[in-house]
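Reading is simple: the token line describes the chain's fold. The lines below illustrate.

. . .
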Amino acid sequence: MAYEQPLAYALGLEGVALLRAFGGEHGHEFTQERIAEIRRLLDDAALAHGADVDHVDTVEGYGIWAETYDGPNPAFGFDEPMVREIAGSLPPGTALDAACGTGRVAAVLAECGHRVIGVDSSPDMLDYARKRVEDADFRLGDLDRLPIDDGAVDVVTCALALSHVPDLGPVLREFARVLRPGGHVLITDMHPEQIARTHVPTVRRPDGSAARVRVHQHRTGDYLRAALAAGLEVRRCEEPSMPSPADPSEPAADPGPWEAWPWSLAGLVPAAAHAANTGVPAVLLWHFQRP
């Protein structure tokens, strides 16, 4: 159980902004503005009211989220071009979409001409995937125990899922196990800097209580070490950032509904949020290959 308070998050953004100013990215006026804004925030009693938030596993969390999962998500714009570029350049073969969710990436693999197998631990997400890609073979299973034979696939994709895994090692070993020699692994995940900023899915349980899907903050090197230990070779690593708005807007009058936290909380301190988040990577993109 976590306690989420708007004031705490806003002050956290102010702190990161001030650290960047201390390092020379901003001057005296910016620093004084941040300190004055902190004083204003501390006097705003409405920001002191927080929420108790439970952390749930992926089966429960994505079961709730399945119906709206395919709504607008800026992270989707990073992985689909990579999958089209690499999977589309390969001869048609068998592709595994691990943690396939609603079949978003599986559909891209099918468009590239591959026979698609999708695996996910959420029955609700699989229901949507089967409707989306009718010719694919979707199976219930876990990332560290894939229901796939050794050396059975040419490509493995895994999008926005590994931050839910406590230990990357067993999962990367499974990816290597199911790959044929020369096969490719394409991974997209939320960047650890975004996990640190609590950019984690929110869900409402049937009883109305607040919850987030449980995540783990893996460092960039953790992915690399797990892949190398599994016998995979690195072909590519990218850490793209979200485009920054040209100018910060005026501060929001209130923190917004809990479902929009922490994104809406940045609106309380737009100048600090802009300074804290500019240039921070949004996702990790990995391309590995089995020798």
Q: What stands out?
A: Residues 56 and 213 are 5 Å apart (CA to CA). The longest helix spans residues 6-22. The chain has a mean pLDDT of 94.
